């Protein structure tokens, strides 16, 4: 039986892939995995940034880039 799962990969090595969702963490044997593919759509809700103020967006981009936000 083939199962498709859509979870975050949190760790992987030659023997196993560890995945997680909101409720659990699972360690899967790599030998039981047929393929790993990236998701084709973002997990961020559509138009999420449209409700964000310019200063909030600047702070978010600074955080994601690892740059301290301007004071």
Could you characterize what this model shows?
The chain is α+β, with helices and mostly antiparallel strands and 71 residues long. It has a domain at 1-34. Helix content is 17%, strand content 21%. The chain has one helix and three strands; from the N terminus they run E-E-E-H. The chain has one helix spanning 54-65; strands at 8-12, 16-20, 25-29. Strands 1-2-3 form a three-stranded antiparallel sheet, with no helix packed on it. Strand 1 (8-12) and strand 2 (16-20) form a beta hairpin. It is elongated and about 50 Å long. The mean pLDDT is 87.
Provide a quick synopsis of the model.
With 71 residues, the chain is α+β, with helices and mostly antiparallel strands. The chain has a domain at 1-34.
Gyration radius (Cα, Å) is 17 Å
Question: Number of helix segments?
Answer: 1
Q: Quick one: biggest sheet?
A: 3 strands, antiparallel
- State the end-to-end CA separation: 55 Å
Helix content: 10-25%
Which strand order spans the largest sheet, edge to edge or round the barrel? 1-2-3
Outline the secondary-structure elements:
Elements: E1 8-12, E2 16-20, E3 25-29, H1 54-65
Antiparallel strand pairs: 1-2, 2-3
